[in-house]
Amino acid sequence: MRQGLSSTVNDKLKHIGHTELEIQNNKMSELSELYQQVILDHNKKPRNFRKLETANHTAEGYNPLCGDQLTVYLSLEDDAVRDIAFEGSGCAISKAAASMMTQAVKGKSKQEAEKLFNEFHRMVTGELDEEIEANSLGNLIIFAGVRDFPVRVKCASLPWHTMHAALQNEGIISTE
Predict the structure, then answer these.
(1) Which alpha helices (DSSP H) does the chain contain, by range?
(2) pLDDT (tens digit, 9 = 90+) per residue, 30-41?
(3) d(CA 115, CA 18)
(4) Each residue of 85-120: pLDDT tens digit?
(5) Domain residue limits, the chain
(6) Which end of the chain has a smaller Cβ tally under 10 Å, C or N?
(7) Can you spell out the DSSP letters for 5-52?
(8) Model's pTM, two decimal places?
(9) Regarding the domain delimited by 57-174, which CATH topology (the fold level of the hierarchy) does it fall under?
(10) Kindly report the CA angle at 99 between 88 and 133, in degrees rounded to 5?
């Protein structure tokens, strides 16, 4: 339905004299604005931002280039993520990615969490075209634009690598 609506809007814009480039620029502007709003919201009010006292798996993650540091806490029960939380400090992208990651992973099986990790990593590194390939990313696709800013890929992926390390009980990871 979204595609149909989009093509209808595009047809109308073309009809009133807008070029394909103008339409693309409008879409990019809208996506950029949405991206900024979501990042700012999750940065100001991060979800699951706390120490999880019942955690039975944890990992610490560091991004020396940006200064991001975070700890991911997992409560795994019967091979499922019963609860997940994080603490730490970092840039808005890192904190927002951690916040949205916790929402996406909570309640998932360990296998589903690993699948999300792989898809997210492939997306932000440009190996997954989220618009063409089937994926489970949902609203996490908001981070697709990060791939256009290589220095920010590590900011967005740090929480995911830290969660992956926590699932494996690996302790400490670094983006370097």
Answers:
(1) 2-15, 20-44, 92-105, 110-124, 150-167
(2) 666 777 888 889
(3) 41
(4) 999 999 999 999 999 999 999 999 999 999 999 999
(5) 2-44, 57-174
(6) N
(7) HHHHHHHHHHHTT--HHHHHHHHHHHHHHHHHHHHHHHHHS-TTBS--
(8) 0.81
(9) Sufe protein. Chain: A (3.90.1010)
(10) 130
